[in-house]
Amino acid sequence: MAAYILRRILLMIPTLFGIMAISFAVIQFAPGGPVEQVIAKLTGQGGDSTDRISGGGGADLSGGQMLDAGGDVSSKYRGAQGLDPEFIKRLEKQFGFDKPPLERFGQMLWNYLRFDFGESYFRKISVLDLIIEKMPVSISLGLWITLLSYAISIPLGIRKAVKDGSAFDIWTSAVVIVGYAIPGFLFAILLMVLFAGGSFFDWFPLAHLVSDNWHELSWPERILDYFWHLTLPLTAMVLSAFATTTLLTKNSFLDEIRKQYVVTARAKGLSERRVLYGHVFRNAMLIVIAGFPGAFISAFFTGSLLIENIFSLDGLGLLGYKSVLDRDYPVVFANLYIFSLIGLLVGLLSDLIYTWIDPRIDFERREV
């Protein structure tokens, strides 16, 4: 097993390199980079994204930069006519675009190997500190939605398998399918209108992870306040999160229940509970565990983007989205690198859990 783990870890290196290389290449052809963002701000052409640019982390936007159009440098950027070419060169140097792409890519990889993600282009903060600052919201949403979805779907899927074809199985399937069909963001808006002071009740808060006076509360009150803020976002996300796992659990259990070893166990006089949880459970849960990494990564990093927007929760999903709009490349690439690395590590962890649940599985003898 040690050799298999080592091979998997070594394979993460070219995988990460490929992800970063492709993303970096795509960015080179994307219009509206950080230099264009500053130019748009100067010339009054910027929209919402450029309005968020602050002089502290970016360029010096002081006067004296407007000159007659001219120079090859200014002609490279849309809207740069009339700006001093020397000012454009200073912008390129400040953002690192004065170096060839291969040199910039190599320097980025070297820094990322040391977990040095640099500083945000448009904020007075390092990228790592910025990610850590937004992490509590994403951890809260991702962790609780994963735990809730599995806590609901696994028992429900087992019960549906045992009661296959019954009235309970039929009506729960209808609920699960309808819940899965309703978009999470649409259900979130409905919850907001109904219970967050929209048009009916004002029972739950609409913004932030905790109240402003959270530090003044006692520990029991802090816990209650924390879950009070999470109630609506988690309800909106969990509606569709457990549907796939529920049906997967049911079908996996049905497949195992029909096998000969289950018939033999029942013939020996074992109770139905002993058969289900002593024999069937371990084999049936393998396919469910296989989907855990994808479900975890989706809930943790991507699934909460719209929910964070709707409920004004400033987490990693919202940070990544705004960074793409602002062309804040250090934040974009740092998010991509960290998320990809965690995804690869969670995939390895899933394989290790495989072998723990079923020792018959031996990845050591397989080709990676």
From TrEMBL:
Keyword Iron: no
Domain ABC transmembrane type-1: 135-350
Gene Ontology terms: cellular component: plasma membrane
Locations listed in the record: Cell inner membrane; Cell membrane
Membrane topology qualifier: Multi-pass membrane protein
Source superkingdom: Bacteria
GO biological process: microcin transport; transmembrane transport
Keywords, ordered alphabetically: Cell inner membrane, Cell membrane, Membrane, Transmembrane, Transmembrane helix, Transport
The keyword Cell inner membrane is annotated on this UniProt entry: yes
Pfam family, one: BPD_transp_1
Membrane-crossing segments per the record: 9-30, 137-158, 170-196, 226-249, 284-311, 331-357
The family this protein is said to belong to: Belongs to the binding-protein-dependent transport system permease family.
Protein name: Microcin C ABC transporter permease YejB
Species assigned in the record: Pseudaminobacter soli
